[in-house]
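Worked example 3 (structure in, sequence out).
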């Protein structure tokens, strides 16, 4: 038995808090009976409807995907471009990407049908670290690396502090590889951070999402998360909730 609002959130109906409001406002029925109490628990075979529409209670699944360049981080695309979901035609559950990776950025992205966890992972207040490797030119100066680390003013506000490390520099090509770890998820943020310092990003890959790495995967590959990895993700967001 699980709390009704948790089941609704996992099914992607709404966040748990909004699901609680839907229950209290009389939008939810369980087995044909209107439910307005938040303490209500439901079994796996109970029939839940929100405003008369049944919710799907699929088995929860979690995948780590190595997104190639040239793939859209969405379920569908009106321009008929390849999406991350196109790589999961063998999966019967209706999964969706957690957050986004730019069309021209490769790397780690999660896909799941767990709406509750996805909502928390994407919310900026939970501060899930994301680590990128950028190939840039020219070679950044020590001052530019310091600015990346301490925060930059972009058109949508200051960025949070980041962890920055110069991995390699090629003086002949005047280019460098820079590792950058951030917990924000603004649109094209990493590229805009480098651009603000007049550094051109030639190649960008997200190599880690939280503690999850791409080890053993190639572009287009995916793997199911292990049970302890799923528990760790829930632990991370629960810890932030408690702070």
């Amino acid at each position: 038995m699980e709390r009704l609002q948790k089941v609704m959130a996992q099914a992607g109906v709404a966040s748990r808090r909004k699901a609680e409001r839907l229950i209290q406002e009389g939008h939810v029925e369980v087995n044909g009976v209107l439910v307005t109490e938040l303490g209500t628990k439901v079994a796996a075979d109970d029939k839940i409807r929100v405003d008369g529409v049944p919710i799907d209670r699929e088995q929860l699944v979690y995948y780590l995907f190595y997104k190639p360049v040239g793939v859209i981080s969405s379920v569908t695309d009106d321009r008929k471009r390849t999406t991350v979901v196109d790589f999961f035609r063998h999966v019967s559950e209706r999964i969706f990407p957690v957050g986004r990776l730019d069309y021209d950025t490769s790397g780690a992205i999660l896909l799941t049908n767990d709406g509750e966890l996805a909502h928390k992972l994407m919310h900026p207040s939970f501060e899930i670290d994301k680590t990128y490797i950028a190939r840039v030119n020219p070679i950044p100066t020590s001052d530019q690396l310091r600015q990346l680390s301490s925060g930059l003013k972009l058109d949508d506000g200051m960025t949070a502090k980041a962890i920055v490390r110069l991995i390699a520099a090629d003086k002949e090509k005047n280019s460098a590889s820079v590792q950058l770890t951030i917990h924000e998820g603004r649109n094209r943020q990493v590229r805009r951070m480098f651009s603000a310092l007049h550094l051109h990003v030639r190649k960008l890959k997200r190599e880690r999402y939280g503690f999850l790495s791409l080890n053993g995967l190639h572009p287009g590959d995916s793997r199911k998360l292990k049970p302890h990895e799923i528990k760790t993700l829930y632990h991370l967001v629960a810890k932030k909730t408690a702070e």
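Notes: The chain has six helices and 17 strands. Helices lie at 4-10, 16-24, 115-122, 142-150, 189-196, 227-242.
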